TrEMBL record:
Keywords: Heme, Iron, Metal-binding, Monooxygenase, Oxidoreductase. GO terms for molecular function: heme binding; iron ion binding; monooxygenase activity; oxidoreductase activity, acting on paired donors, with incorporation or reduction of molecular oxygen. InterPro entries: Cyt_P450, Cyt_P450_B, Cyt_P450_CS, Cyt_P450_sf. Belongs to the cytochrome P450 family. This is Cytochrome P450. Gene3D superfamilies: Cytochrome P450 (1.10.630.10).
Length: 404
């Protein structure tokens, strides 16, 4: 399975030396062991792929399925609900039919929709920056901006009441747990989350509004079939988790990476036309990309690094692949003007992230607002003092102390 065998599987996720530094193993694995044995938090073993070509081909190949509840598939975590990747939500969406589900939900993530949402996102970001300025410096950018903005945006899209936003943020956090929360806490949160969103769907059925859930209740697919009630609840839960936590984490990491070497921030402050390419490069360069994407094989499959046998659970590290020098010139350097930039931060193929247009819009807007409002922004602590949250599917910072 690899160029250089490893006698014992590596514990996965791999540890990193600092919050803004990648795991030291990434480079060695890409060069010497591109398909490595790893032990997951459940104790089960999987194959980790880290080269760009391999990760892209696995994610785009339909033989590598999302059927992580199949007999013989490795468990990511050992809980009743199965964790994020093989939770009841994931299984419900699979039952809706992936292509059908994407067609029904995808119209909410078009370029036209994003252009319409942009002014509201900008106004929310400005309001949150106002609150941070009122708080005074130093301030935690995670608390004041990075976390509240995405949950407000996705709740507005779903038509969820403002009073539920803190609960949604908590449930999203628990849903993404690998080792941060106990199995009992994860299972309880899943039940509470599902019950709350079931009530929300019922409310939208009785009192529809101008939101995604109301529209999904009113539309049918090409065969005239509506989305099931379970599918609607699972859709709301999936969008809340993906649309909140991952973007919130990325906003904080984006600002941290730019301020860790402040020449990057100064370059953007002097030329805000670079914001779009800067966001793409930061997505590529993310040293704390989280768990990656698991896939399961029902048949033998050949990739450039060798044969993967049937029954293998494969974990794709997009973050490691995005640092591959064979795919990106000077991959270990942050180049804010890099173009083209075919990074894999949002995956690849038919299962690439549905919400990536929204994530890109939020990141671009937040960065543009901060550059406009706070061109003197700086870290209030050394970059080596930043702490990453361990034990979650997504890579996240505990806090981001800033001054201006």
């Amino acid at each position: 399975m690899s160029d250089v065998p490893i006698e014992q599987p590596l514990d996965y996720p791999l540890p990193a030396p600092a919050a803004l530094e990648p795991p030291a193993e990434w480079a060695r694995l890409r060069q010497q062991c591109p398909v490595a044995r790893v032990k997951l938090p459940s104790g089960d073993e999987a194959a980790l792929v880290t080269r760009y070509e391999d990760v892209r081909s696995v994610l785009a190949d339909p033989r590598f399925t999302r059927e992580l509840n199949a007999p013989g598939a490795a468990r990511i975590i050992d809980t009743e609900s199965g964790g994020l990747f093989n939770s009841p939500v994931a299984n419900t969406l699979a039952a809706e039919g992936h292509a059908r589900w994407r067609r029904m939900v995808g119209k909410w993530f078009t370029a036209r929709r994003m252009a319409a949402l942009r002014p509201g996102i900008e106004a929310t970001a400005d309001r949150l920056v106002d609150g941070m300025l009122e708080h005074g410096q130093p301030a935690d950018l995670v608390t004041h901006l990075a976390f509240p903005l995405p949950v407000w945006v996705i709740c507005d899209m779903l038509g969820a009441p403002e009073s539920d936003r803190d609960r949604f943020a908590h449930w999203s956090d628990v849903t993404l747990s690998l080792t941060e929360y106990s199995g009992t806490e994860i299972d309880a949160a899943q039940h509470e989350f599902t019950a709350c969103l079931t009530d929300l769907v019922d409310t939208k059925r009785e009192q529809p509004g101008d939101d995604l859930l109301s529209e999904l209740l009113a539309v049918t697919d090409a065969e005239g079939r509506p989305m099931s009630d379970a599918g609607l609840v699972a859709t709301a839960q999936a969008l809340l988790v993906a649309g909140h936590e991952t973007t919130a984490s990325m906003i904080a990491k984006m600002v941290a990476m730019l301020l860790a070497d402040r020449r990057h921030w100064e370059r953007l402050a002097a030329d805000r036309t670079l914001v779009r390419t800067a966001v793409e490069e930061i997505l590529r360069f993310d040293p704390n990309g989280g768990f990656g994407l698991p896939r399961f094989l029902h048949e033998d499959a050949e990739i450039s690094s060798g044969l993967l046998p049937s029954g293998t659970t494969v974990v794709c590290s997009m973050a490691a692949a995005n640092r591959d020098d064979s795919a990106f010139e000077s991959a270990g350097e942050l180049d804010l003007g890099r173009s083209p930039n075919p990074h894999l931060a949002f995956g690849a193929g038919a299962h690439s992230c549905l919400g990536q247009p929204l994530a890109r819009t939020e990141l671009q807007v937040v960065l543009d607002v901060l550059l406009r409002r706070l061109p003197t922004l700086d870290l209030a602590v050394g970059a080596d003092e930043l702490r990453r949250v361990e034990g979650l599917v997504v890579g996240r910072l505990h806090e981001l102390p800033v001054r201006w």
